[in-house]
């Protein structure tokens, strides 16, 4: 599983699934997947690109929009497919947006095991294209950057279950990160 997954708060309290509702421009053709970092732009939630210097507001967990053909008249999806719903429909994103949230994300280190120096730094987030079948993000921890949007916490890294543990190969880990640049904490961009 890739993407950013909220797991706890910085004080150690568990993440309880709380989200804030934000509007998505129904004409926005860019797909947004569960686990993608998102930001507010012109009053709407958009997929953040995870680059150095870019603040984000939280992580996309799903969306809902009016759909007269659906039971109850609404559709819930774990991703925004970029296709405008019926005329006049509003699209609402559900975003895990607490500035104190800690997220789990995949980290691949080429050429060997992660070392303590790999953590305690800011990183970019490499988004990938997302998975249309599951609606999940394919985002992974990117490269170190002095102005990256996420900070890798200096905790013990856990090997990813699919890691082959072959000497000299790329090793995949799950690491915990927090927002280094967060729109609700006064970071711009």
Structure summary:
With 189 residues, the protein is mainly β.
Low-confidence stretches: none
What proportion of the residues is helical, as a percent range? Answer: under 10%
Portion in strands? 35-45%
Continuous helix count: 0
DSSP strand tally? 13
Taken together, the total number of domains comes to 2
Mean pLDDT: 85
Shape assignment: elongated
Q: If you compute it from the alpha carbons, what radius of gyration comes out, rounded to the nearest whole angstrom?
A: 17 Å
Main pleated sheet: 7 strands, antiparallel
Give the helices and strands as they follow along the chain. Answer: EEEEEEEEEEEEE
List the helices and strands and how they pair.
Blueprint: E1 5-9, E2 20-24, E3 37-41, E4 44-47, E5 58-66, E6 74-77, E7 91-96, E8 101-109, E9 122-126, E10 140-144, E11 150-152, E12 158-159, E13 171-179
Antiparallel strand pairs: 1-8, 2-7, 3-4, 3-5, 5-6, 5-7, 8-13, 9-10, 9-11, 11-13, 12-13
Looking at this protein, list some descriptive labels.
7-stranded antiparallel beta sheet, 189 residues, 13 strands, 6-stranded antiparallel beta sheet, mainly beta
Describe the structure in your own words.
The chain has no helices and 13 strands. The protein has two domains: 16-96, no CATH class; 101-185, no CATH class. Strands 1, 8, 9, 10, 11, 12 and 13 form a seven-stranded antiparallel beta sheet that branches. Strands 2, 3, 4, 5, 6 and 7 form a six-stranded antiparallel beta sheet that branches. With 189 residues, it is an all-beta fold. The radius of gyration is 17 Å and the shape is elongated. A hairpin with a 2-residue loop joins strand 3 and strand 4 (44-47).
